[in-house]
Amino acid sequence: MFNIFQSIPTQMDYKGQKLAEQIFQGIILVSAVIGFIYGYITEQFGWTVYIVMAGFALSCLLTLPPWPIYRRNPLKWLPVQEPATDDKKPADRKVKRHSKN
User: Fold this and answer.
1) pTM over the 0.70 mark
2) Where exactly are the transmembrane stretches of this chain (predicted)?
């Protein structure tokens, strides 16, 4: 049963994170403006809060899961490099000396 959950991708790339943040802020801003205007017209502050909360819920639904739109630009990682074996003895290495000014 847990194999199904392990197959779900959980990463976003950096451009996807930026897009998700912009969408999140845009939805919050629009819902706040609409909520303020509607609450002002109806003279009910409660409607302002409800509309902003609905905008928050919508923005969470659209931006928190790693939808495929947020995974379009994956990072290309470098391959793993084996540590180089240094056959030189410490006495064979040149000592770097700084010049005094």
Assistant:
1) no
2) 23-41, 47-67
